[in-house]
Amino acid sequence: MVDYQEYLAFIYSALETLNKKQVALSEDTELVGDIGLSSLEVMEFIEKIEDHFDISIPLNILPDVSTIGELAKKIHQLNL
Amino acid sequence: MLFDKFQAMADFRAELAEQGVAPFGAVTEEILSATEGIVQGRKVILAGTNNYLGLSYDSRCIAKAQEAAQRWGTGTTGSRVANGSFEGHQALEDEIAAFYGVDHAIAFSTGYAATMGMCATLAGPGDVILLDADSHSSIYSGVKLSGADIIRFKHSNPDDLAKRLRRLGDRAGQALIIAEGIYSMLGDVAPLQEIAAVKREYGGYLLVDEAHSMGVLGESGRGAAQAAGVEDDVDFIVGTFSKSLGSVGGFCVSPHAELENIRFCINAYIFTASSSPSVVASTREALRIISSEPERREQLWRNSHQLYDGLKSLGLKVGPSASPVVAVEFEDHAKTIACWQGLMDQGVYVNLVVPPASPSTNFLLRNSVSAAHSPQQIDTIIAAYASLKDSGLLPSAEHGEG
């Protein structure tokens, strides 16, 4: 069973190439608001997470997610 | 502010206005034939419609519409579940079911309502939907309303679909899989044989949107599933009357008797007025014509190859194979807009497509072919593009890109 910290660690690493503004990343960092991901980049990023953990992340959870921490928490809840 | 979210659209419209270009909602002032009209004061070849079989101006369809309006009036003024089910609606459902060789059909007031309504209703909270990433807006709107878990698979990628069904485990058997026949913006055909094979392996239900492929593909014009020989694997086909059939309205057909119960649970069917009698009558006549005149489909494909080959030979970035939708992709947005106007100036109307309607950040000039186009008209369209190339607006053959 993958724990929250493991999801969080992977999210940080997956964001490295997408974090063009070199924003300092924390659980409170907003994916769109702070890092500035476009909608296409969000989908690429989500796909990276899906393939790494061999899971599918439903699109319908995304409107409730704005920060890195919220995303890790949602994915963790989905796969308990 | 409530209106802040529309600022990007306001900026884009201002940019177009500055260039003196009005590609969206260009008003057709007169229709001269299935392939010619007066748009923005200019006589143009209509190469940006979905009038694949040229039936929008067929005298037999017009006559049936006139008779029906005379006999039944101009509108039903009510829902199909109240006062809006006339004899013609029932007959249309029987005939569309017979056309598809199944027992059950629902006729909707628009194609958007058919697709959105079915996607919103078939699955609900706790269910899961797998949809192609490049699905039409009506599909995205529907699945969003459904309350189901929504999972995208890569566009026309059966391996990605299989991977995602595998990840679902026991839930795969109840999943709703959604694909289209021909994708409306780039004209590519879904790999339905492979998608059906994945469905057979993992289970689930398959819904195919044949909006742009009905009347276009398949031995009797049923669409991409018929062409691929996988109709037995398809649980629901949705489509529209507004393209090959030249009218307006939509449908769902299915071998499942449950469709008769589902009908009474679809808000987009219940809470809207039914199609006007004249629309129903012309649709029925068009359906009869596409069944009895396969030569229209043959002409459509000859025209499609002519346009596709012509634009490709100019070095333009077109899709992987010929199709009645021939889209040219550009990275340079300003140049695409100038090209759209350049075509209009030469008497050719095509569609300008921008994100999110286009599947990437590219702009498209979307050309659509009709069986009613003459070979000379297709040559004129190609010549208009060639002239833009000569004037330096279009990219060179080496790059194939704007």
Give an account of the 3D structure.
The complex is a heterodimer of chains A (80) and B (402). Chain A is mostly helical and 80 residues long. Chain A contains three helices and no strands. Chain A has helices at 4-15, 39-53, 68-78. In chain A, α1 crosses α3. In chain A, 16% of the residues are buried. With 402 residues, chain B is α/β, with parallel strands linked by helices. Chain B folds into two domains: 4-57 and 294-390, Aspartate Aminotransferase, domain 1; 59-292, Type I PLP-dependent aspartate aminotransferase-like (Major domain) (Aspartate Aminotransferase, domain 2, 3-Layer(aba) Sandwich), CATH 3.40.640. Chain B contains 14 helices and 14 strands. The longest helix of chain B has 19 residues, at 295-313. Residues 397-402 of chain B have low confidence and may be disordered. Chains A and B meet through loops of A and β6 and α6 of B.
In oligomeric terms, what are we looking at?
heterodimer
Give a short account of the largest sheet of chain B.
7 strands, mixed
* Total count of helical runs of at least 4 residues of chain A: 3
Radius of gyration of chain B: 21 Å
SSE order of chain B, one letter for each helix or strand: HEEEHHEHEHEHEHEHEEHHHHEHEEEH
Number of domains of chain A: 1
Q: Please give the most extensive interface between any two protein chains, plus how many residues each contributes.
A: A-B, 9 and 14 residues
β-sheet strand percentage of chain B: 15-25%
**Separation of the first and last Cα atoms of chain B:** 37 Å
Gross morphology of chain A: globular
* Low-pLDDT residue spans of chain B: 397-402
Task: Identify the overall geometry of chain B.
Answer: globular
Structural class of chain A: mainly alpha
Estimate the mean pLDDT confidence of chain A: 92
CATH class of the largest domain in chain B: Alpha Beta
